Amino acid sequence: MINFFAHIKDNALRYPHKTAIVSGDEKCSWEELYQQVEKRAKELKAASYKNGQVVCMRAMPTIDYLVDYFAFHLVGCVVAPLERDMPDEKFYQTRQWLEPQQVGKGASDILYTTGTTGQSKGVIISHQAILADAENLIESQGFSHETVFVINGPLNHIGSLSKIYPIILQGGTIIIVDGLKNLDAFFNAFDYPSDKMATFLVPASIRILIQLGAAWLAKIAHKIDFIETGAAAIAQADMQKLCQLLPHTRLYNTYASTETGIVCTHNFNSSLCEAGCLGKPMKHAEVFITDEGKIACRGKQIMTGYVGDPKRTAQILRNHTIYTADIGTIDEEGRLHLKGREDDVINVGGFKVSPLEVENATLSLPMVKDCICTSMPHPITGQALKLLIVTENNQILDKKAIATHLLTKLEPYKVPQFYEQTDKIKRTFNGKADRKHYRIES
What we know:
The protein is of the alpha/beta class. The chain has 14 helices and 24 strands. The mean pLDDT is about 90.
């Protein structure tokens, strides 16, 4: 079992005056964090919160949220962080259904998936899984007590929440930024006096920074120790550009999900810079490819199951193994390569096409700002590929030039027949293309 409070107390003894958390104009030291969590836990006990009780709370980008999060754990509650902007009615409905649930011994958190490929699901995360995730990151990415981690994503999903864990274990510093809506606020976070700064950025955010903040990134390159990306596929062109802007920064592409935990990571600024390469399994993780070509994961970091849904749990969790819908391979050096999701593969006249491959080739064109490859009905092939493209500076889409370019990078059957210019590609908060939306639209 991971005991957040024990680590916070230890950090308060070792680094009492060192900054633990910064959020806007507020900050607290490790000693202050220890005192606030202890005080809040006493209040919760007095309010009759007890061990094993499920508690829902809005995940706010504040110090108070993290104090409550740690205090509920100290009391022994199972915390279910929910979207901060969830409508009140939905929040109370979720709370009414979730809080009476029995989640079993050893449960720590309930994290909801984004639900882009189906109904959002509550994933039970154990104390063992949280500790394994923390140790996986510490060993593979070099978190230390000097690490200053800038969190800019929602603190109810694994991408950002999981970065809290190694900081607590190592006694580093957390800086919370309220997303990338205000780029200046994100940039200003890196004024912090440290040359061991790090952050997690979804690929869509990396693209924004490359387009709007390249000069800034180059200016502070000496301060950035490492950047992790994940949650969605990052384009080859963006990987290469980031390597150019940050030549001495460790740049990690990570394979993780709410269900699998944090599994593999690869520093693409040190050796192979290839889209889809996710590196070797971490300390507590194991991966293999099934006979169907899908990625399966084992280890201490995997989920316990879906809350209140044993049938759906059994569909992907069997014999302590998570069977994903991700298609992948493992190379001769033991590195995992992601090829796409089974649900996303498009069948064009019997040929299977990964939209990720088409999108990656398209994004290598300077005039392309964003894109998504989807499908539409075709009388002969059943399905045909369609590209929706956002151009830089609203340039007029040159369909012939794009098709010609793609023929130099892809087999002919992977080159789309149809092209459409659009103002924006619909994405989820974590940068994933909302393929379900486009399937419905088509």
